[in-house]
Amino acid sequence: MSTTKFSISIEKVAQSRLQDIDFSQLSFGQVFSDHMFICDYKDGKWQDPRIVPYGPFSVEPSLSVFHYGQAVFEGMKAYKDDRGEVFLFRPTENYARINKSCKRMAMPEFPEDLFDEALKTLVDLDRLWVQPGFGNALYLRPFMIATSPGVQANPSSQYRFMIITSPVQSYYKGQEVKVKIADHYSRAANGGVGFAKAAGNYAGQFYPTALAKEEGYQQVIWTDDATHQKLEECGTMNIVVRIGDTLISPPPTERILDGVTRRSVMAVAEKLGIAFESRPITVSELLEASEKGTLKEIFGCGTAAVVSPVAAFSYEGKEYRLPELKDSFAARIKEYLLNIQYNRAEDPFGWRVRV
Ligand SMILES: *Cc1c(COP(=O)(O)O)cnc(C)c1O
C-alpha cells in the first residue's frame, strides 16, 4: 500500500495480466488493464479515493443506477510515443464535460485536482498497457453511477466515480461505413439530455441502430426530432460534411454533444487553411450537393475513431455514394491530429499532456 499527494491509496495486483494479452487481436473495449480507480460520494463529500486491481464489486439490486439510469461517463485516450513517453490529449476538456453532464443529471461534481491526479496515477501505474504505434492507445473510461440503495425515484444521495482503462487498436479498422439518415427516431430533444454524456443516451440509440443494421447501414445519422431535416450527429460521433472545399458541421446545441474531437478538427482545419463552417446543415442541402456532385465527404469524429469517413448514406430508401478521394480532408486532418497525439509533430495548440 502506498498513497499519492491526494491520498489515493494504491493496492497493486499480485501478478499483472499483461503477458496474457494478444495486443494484435483486440476488439474495442473488451480487455481491461490491471487496475481501476474508485472514489465514493457519501454524507455530502467524496471520500476514500483508491486504486485497486480491476475486477467486479458487489452491490444491492435496488441500486438507483439500475432503475433510473442516473449515470454519466467520459471517453479519452492515453498515447505512447516512439521513446515510450505517455501522453493524454486535452484532459481538462473531459473533466469540464463530465461535470456539465453531472449537473444535468443531478449528480455531484467531481473535484478537478482529484480527477487529474487519479487519471495520471492510474495511467502511470498501467503504462505498460499503453502500446506504442499509430492507432494503439489505452482507452480511458471515467464514469459515475448513482449508488443509493432503494427504488425511490429521487436523485441518489450516494455515488461512485470510477476510471477503468482498456487497451485499443484503431476503431472501425478497414471496414466501409454506410449510414442511414434518421427519418423517424431521434437521439435527443430540446430541453433533454442530448448534450450530456449520459448513459441512457446510448441505450436509446441501440434499437434504431439495430434496425439500420438490418438494412445494411452500420450507423444512423441523427436528425432533429421536430423536422428530421437538420443533421445532428453520426452514430455516437459528431458529424462533418464537405461540400466543395468547405467543411460544415452543426454546432453543439442542447441536442448535440460538444465533442473534443470536433473542436480539435475545427482548429486543425483552420491551421491547414481548410474552410470550416460551424452551422446547421439540412438533409436537402446534402441531397442537393450530392446531385450536383459537390458533396465530397462525410465523416464522424470522436475520441474512439478520431475521424471516421462515411462511404455511403441512405435517405428514404435511396442510397447515395460518396466519391473515393485520394487526399481527403478527413485523412489529412486525422494524420495531423494523430501526429500531435503520438508526439510525432509540434503541438501548436498545447493539447498534449505528459503523464
Ligand atoms: C462522446 C460523444 C461524441 C464525441 O466526443 P469526443 O469528445 O470527440 O470524444 C460525440 N457525440 C456523442 C453523442 C458522444 O457521446
TrEMBL record:
Q: What is its EC number?
A: 2.6.1.42
- Record pathway: Amino-acid biosynthesis; L-leucine biosynthesis; L-leucine from 3-methyl-2-oxobutanoate: step 4/4; Amino-acid biosynthesis; L-isoleucine biosynthesis; L-isoleucine from 2-oxobutanoate: step 4/4; Amino-acid biosynthesis; L-valine biosynthesis; L-valine from pyruvate: step 4/4
Q: Which UniProt keywords apply?
A: Amino-acid biosynthesis, Aminotransferase, Branched-chain amino acid biosynthesis, Pyridoxal phosphate, Transferase
Q: Is the keyword Amino-acid biosynthesis assigned to this protein?
A: yes
Cofactor(s), by name: pyridoxal 5'-phosphate
**Molecular function as annotated in GO:** branched-chain-amino-acid transaminase activity
- What is catalysed by this protein? L-leucine + 2-oxoglutarate = 4-methyl-2-oxopentanoate + L-glutamate; L-isoleucine + 2-oxoglutarate = (S)-3-methyl-2-oxopentanoate + L-glutamate; L-valine + 2-oxoglutarate = 3-methyl-2-oxobutanoate + L-glutamate
| Residues recorded with modification N6-(pyridoxal phosphate)lysine | 197
Q: Which family does it belong to?
A: Belongs to the class-IV pyridoxal-phosphate-dependent aminotransferase family.
PANTHER family linked? BRANCHED-CHAIN-AMINO-ACID AMINOTRANSFERASE, SUBGROUP IIII AMINOTRANSFERASE
Write the protein's name.
Answer: branched-chain-amino-acid transaminase
Origin organism of this chain? Capnocytophaga granulosa
